[in-house]
Structures are given as structure tokens and as C-alpha cells.
Write a structure and sequence with these properties.
- It contains 12 helices and 15 strands.
- β13 and β14 form a beta hairpin.
- The longest helix is centred in the middle third of the chain and has 26 residues.
- The radius of gyration is 20 Å and the shape is globular.
- The mean pLDDT is 91.
Length: 411
């Protein structure tokens, strides 16, 4: 019997816009069916609100200071889950819809087949600049769905690992989808057709995928990880420029969808505990009877099996300060969260148990100072790069940041 593994990451999809998470404005029956046949994690936190950083952590099971990709000018410098399955004899294929996840950044490691956007298939370009004046043009968009489904159908009788990063749920994709006739003008048009784009992914990617798996008789034994790389902020925490650029450390941007379907984990299970995207790889390793030494993530198998409460610490960052509002860090557990803007020397602290919408900043409240200081120390540890190559900041910049925070009394 084969044991295929499918990883699908939907770009910028908030879990609270999916039917299985309680949303009723649109129907997502195919995503919901995967959830019904697997485990839905209600409170998953991503390692970054920037796609390449987030997906590098997902694919490696470690945080950015260990895999080395911390901005658009870095590359993955850690073994990926794809390399693991490749060594086990799996046929491997990757299809990505934005070239921030391209071969140049080493996202192709371990893939026998790897498809990324080109100017011929892309529908948008974005220019990124580095601190030292370098520039890179990024291509957005690649409708790889048909190639992806063809790969699954052709390899149904083999062990395979396939990853698809679906970008057509992201802002600006609505122009291409309208032109292609995949969504309708004026229907579900709020927030740049946000719900319409999610429904399109459910209809045109997940529906046909489930059909192939069932038709080929491999639905039950196929492991599916369905997730989003990060969330999106609408009007909860208005941005200075645009609502739709997931540039913050609020949980509207950091909370992501995560569903894992696997026979060993059970069906129609919901987990309320906070988990992390870095836990995906260790979970797959345990499912496939292999250890995961030295990873930052932890397997979710014991949590699902035992239902025992845990208190996992979730770290997130966006250190590419030219993208938005500064170099940002956040750390949170089940109840509390500290956010820091390194560029501005600002901090926010929230009691998530009492204030899940993160509206009341408690950083100056005396009763929380011991916990705030503890979180500050942990944030400091993540600034230090543990891989060869350029760190996110020069030594001079790190010293300047620390002096700025000291002057404000934060460290």
C-alpha cells in the first residue's frame, strides 16, 4: 500500500474565513471534508507574516534564525522535509505560485520536479529593495493547478510527496481570476474578492484533488497537510497604507489555518491548544516512524492522541523592515503575547485570554513586568543568527537597536 503525502499552502487565508472554522458567508465543502476526515487545529501560529520566511520554517521545522531565510535576499540553509522524503524513495514535486519561493532561495531542495513562476505565466510584479540598495523583481502568480493534479493522478500507485503553494488567494490575484472567468464580477467582492478567491481554491483545487484520490482508491491512506502560510488583517488593526499586506505581528496576520489528515491521527478531531507551523515537520516525521532531533518544532501526535494541555511558545518575526512598519518580533504562549518593533523601539503586551483581539496594550502594567521581562529575554535570543551567512542586522545595527531599547527602558 502506498502512503502519499500532500502539502498545500494557501496564501494569506485566514482560518476564520473557512467553513470548518465556523464561517458561513461562503461554503468551502472540500476543505471542510478534509477537516472532517482529519484534525483541525483551531489556534495555529505561523513563524512570519512574510511568505518565504513562513514557508521556510514550515518546511524545515525550525525558526528563521536557524534556517537563515529572514528576508527576500536570503535562502533556506537547513534540511527540508522534502529532502527527508526524497531519501526514503518518494517521488517529489513542488509547484509554487510566487517566486519568493523559488530555486534561487533553495526551496527546490529535494524536489525531482519543481515549477515556479516565470514572466510568461505571472500576473504581477513586485520590486523588493535591500538595506544596501540591491533590488530584486518578484513574479507573482502561476496557475499550476492542472499540472499538480496531473502529477497526483500519474503517481497514484507510488509513494510521493508533493507541495503546492497556491497564490491566487492573495491580493491582486482577483484581476487575473476575473479575467480567466474563475470568479464573477461583483460577486463576493469585499476585500478585493477575498472570499471569492478562497471559494475558487476550494472549487478548482481541493475538489478535483479529492475526486482523484477517491477515484484512484488512495483517499484513506493519503496524508494531507492543508494550511495557510499566514493570515491577513482587514479593519481590526488598520495599516497606514493598505489593509491587505499582512505586515503586522497581530494574530490576524499570524494565525493560520492548519488541518492534517492522516489515518493515525483520527477523524473529525479539533485541537484548541496553541500550536505552531514549525510543528508540521516533526509531526510528519513521527507519523512516518522517524525521529526529528534538533528541531524547534514538536510533534503534534501526542497532543492529538492524549488531549493533554500544553504551553508551546510561538515565535514570529518580520525583520525585513523596508516592507512595512519596521523590524518586528512577537512571542506568545496560550495566554500572553509580547510584540516588539525594533526599528521604532516600541512594544505591546497583551493578555490573550482576556483580550483575544489585542486591543489593550498592557506593557506598562506593573503586574505583568516579570512576564514581560521573561519574554524580552527570549526575543533577544532569536535575533542571533545560528547559520553561516549574513545575519538580518549588522553588528552595528544590533548594537543600535539594543541601545534604543535600553534608552526606553525595555531591556
Amino acid at each position: 500500500m502506498t502512503n502519499p503525502v500532500i502539502l498545500i499552502s494557501l496564501d494569506a487565508v485566514r482560518p476564520d474565513h473557512l467553513g470548518c472554522y465556523g464561517y458561513d458567508k461562503i461554503k468551502t465543502p472540500n476543505i471542510d471534508e478534509i477537516a472532517t476526515n482529519g484534525v483541525l487545529f483551531e489556534n495555529s501560529i505561523t513563524a512570519s507574516c512574510l511568505t518565504p520566511v513562513a514557508m521556510a520554517s514550515t518546511l524545515t521545522g525550525v525558526y528563521p534564525n536557524r534556517h537563515g531565510l529572514r528576508n527576500p535576499f536570503c535562502a533556506v540553509n537547513f534540511e527540508t522535509v522534502t529532502e527527508y522524503f526524497k531519501k526514503r524513495g518518494y517521488e517529489t514535486a513542488g509547484f509554487v505560485g510566487i517566486d519568493l519561493l523559488n530555486a534561487a532561495r533553495k526551496f527546490n531542495k529535494g524536489f525531482s520536479i519543481f515549477k515556479e513562476p516565470t514572466e510568461e505565466v505571472g500576473w504581477h510584479k513586485m520590486k523588493y529593495k535591500s538595506q544596501d540598495g540591491k533590488e530584486v523583481d518578484t513574479i507573482w502568480g502561476y496557475w499550476w493547478v492542472d499540472e499538480f493534479l496531473d502529477f497526483v493522478e500519474r503517481n497514484h500507485d507510488r509513494n510521493f510527496f508533493v507541495w503546492g503553494h497556491y497564490f491566487e488567494t492573495h491580493v491582486a490575484a482577483e484581476r487575473w481570476l476575473l479575467g480567466a472567468g474563475f470568479i464573477k464580477e461583483g460577486l463576493l467582492a469585499e476585500w478585493d474578492y477575498y472570499d471569492a478567491k478562497i471559494k475558487c481554491a476550494d472549487d478548482r483545487l481541493l475538489g478535483p484533488l479529492i475526486d482523484i484520490l477517491k477515484r484512484k482508491g488512495i483517499w484513506e491512506q493519503t496524508t494531507i497537510v492543508l494550511m495557510s502560510d499566514h493570515g491577513e488583517t482587514f479593519d481590526e488593526h488598520p495599516h497606514k497604507e493598505s489593509w491587505s499586506q499582512h505586515q503586522s505581528m497581530y494574530n490576524t496576520d499570524l494565525r493560520n489555518a492548519l488541518i492534517i489528515k492522516n489515518e493515525r491521527l483520527g477523524k473529525n478531531v479539533r485541537v484548541r491548544n496553541k500550536v505552531r507551523t514549525i510543528d508540521v515537520v516533526p509531526t510528519l516525521f513521527e507519523i512516518f516512524h522517524s525521529g526529528a532531533p534538533g528541531l524547534d518544532g514538536e510533534s503534534l501526535v501526542p497532543l492529538v492522541a492524549n488531549g493533554k494541555p500544553t504551553n508551546r511558545i510561538a515565535y514570529s518575526e518580520e525583520l525585513y523592515e523596508l516592507r512595512g512598519y519596521g523590524a518586528l518580533q512577537a512571542i506568545q504562549d496560550e495566554k500572553f503575547k509580547l510584540m516588539r518593533n525594533l526599528s521604532l523601539g516600541e512594544e505591546e503586551f497583551y493578555n490573550l485570554a482576556e483580550d483575544p483581539l489585542e486591543k489593550k496594550n498592557l506593557v506598562a502594567e506593573g503586574q505583568y513586568q516579570k512576564l514581560v521581562n521573561n519574554f524580552r529575554e527570549k526575543l533577544e535570543e532569536f535575533l542571533v543568527s545560528k547559520v553561516d551567512g549574513a545575519p538580518p542586522f549588522s553588528r552595528e545595527e544590533e548594537d543600535e537597536i539594543r541601545e534604543r531599547l535600553k534608552s526606553l527602558g525595555y531591556i
